[in-house]
Specification:
By secondary structure, the protein is an alpha/beta fold. It has a single domain, classed as Aldolase class I (TIM Barrel). The chain contains eight helices and 18 strands. It has an eight-stranded parallel β-sheet with strand order 3-18-17-12-11-8-7-4. Strands 5-6-16-13 form a four-stranded antiparallel β-sheet, with no helix packed on it. β7, α2 and β8 form a beta-alpha-beta unit. α6 crosses α8. The longest helix is centred in the C-terminal third of the chain and has 16 residues. The radius of gyration is 18 Å and the shape is globular. It starts with 8 loop residues before the first strand and ends in a 14-residue tail after the last helix. Bound molecules: flavin mononucleotide. Flavin mononucleotide binds next to loops.
């Protein structure tokens, strides 16, 4: 009989029973998937990005299918932190799965305020900070494209909470290791990457953009090689745990990220194609490790031979 490998993974003080998490914005507030999979088997659930107040997001069309992926410009539609804590969290806390909230803001103050509101809430294991949002005080340039503003926003969140902080990095930068090092210096407990890559789709008949927002974020298998390259670079540049995201749709995709240096992974767009993707990826990782006689998942992390 195959020996069960150890899958436990630590992200700061968050203990995950396995490395498979859901990516923000692709898994709603969790309960939407409760009839399709056993949510208690997930390593962690990361919910849709939350703001201080409810947000309507962008006008439609907000999604375009692309070869091997999709472009989205949802515009961070969400119910707001208060409704999440009152209406969604009680159910999520009946599960034996850590719940991580994803937050965003338009100013450093808004991020800090969100962290301060979340800090006393029991049943939230950690905060993932989406820094790919436009900074309205700096002409709409995203916080995450500049090491200084990335540092500033993570430091502001860090100062407001003792909960583990995960900085979610934007790939729309020249050197992602610079940003990773700046958020590590600001006190982030981990980094997750990548968020979507900015893209454009055009309707040649009307010569108009296919998305009302003009540009959108590319996700899905199309971005996996870029994500993998960035995870590998970042894992070699920082000491904090790295969480891999980008086009993961199978156990072998997930294993590539682990070998590149990620200690955990998130499944995003694949949830839309196959709602059982997370569980199938988990079972596939387990099977691979058993078959190879690898007793602890940590023994495969960062083992890329170059
Ligand atoms: C429809 C959609 C909504 C998303 N919403 C968020 C969000 O609210 N906050 C965030 O940090 N990332 C968001 N993302 C980015 C994903 O969490 C993930 O980083 C990205 O899609 C790459 O992973 P994937 O290729 O597995 O989808 C969203 C992605 C999609 C496709």
């Amino acid at each position: 009989m195959e020996k069960q490998p150890k899958l436990q993974t630590d992200i700061g003080t968050i203990r995950l029973k396995n490395p498979v998490m859901t990516a923000s914005g692709t898994f709603g507030y969790g309960r939407e998937y409760s009839e399709l999979i056993d949510l208690s088997r997930l390593g962690a659930i990361i919910v849709k990005g939350l703001f201080l107040k409810p947000a309507k997001g962008n006008p439609p069309p907000r999604i375009v299918e692309t070869p091997c992926g999709m472009l989205n410009a949802i515009g961070l539609e969400n119910i707001g932190i208060q409704a999440f804590v009152e209406e969604k969290l009680p159910y999520l806390n009946t599960l034996s799965t850590p719940i991580i909230v994803n937050i965003y803001g338009h100013t450093v103050y808004e991020y800090a305020e969100l962290a301060a509101r979340i800090d006393p809430v029991e049943g939230i294991a950690g905060i993932e900070v989406n820094i790919s949002c436009p900074n309205i005080k700096e002409g709409g340039i995203a916080f995450g494209v500049n090491p200084r503003s990335a540092h500033e926003v993570i430091k502001a969140v860090r100062d407001m909470t003792k909960k583990p902080v995960i900085a979610k990095l934007s790939p729309n930068v020249a050197d992602i290791t610079e940003i990773a090092k700046s958020v590590e210096a600001a006190g982030s407990d981990a980094v997750s990457l990548i968020n979507t890559i900015t893209g454009l789709a055009i309707d040649i008949e009307t010569r108009r953009p296919k998305l009302a927002n003009i540009t959108g974020g590319l996700s899905g298998p199309a971005i996996k090689p870029v994500a993998l390259r960035m995870v590998w670079q970042v894992a070699n540049a920082v000491r904090i745990p790295v969480i891999g995201i980008g086009g993961i749709a199978s156990a072998s995709d997930a294993l590539e990220f682990l070998i590149a240096g990620a200690c955990a992974i998130q499944v995003g767009t694949a949830n839309f194609v196959n709602p059982r993707a997370t569980i199938e990826i988990l079972e596939g990782i387990e099977h691979f490790l058993s078959k190879k006689g690898i007793e602890d998942i940590r023994d495969i992390v960062g083992t890329l031979r170059v």
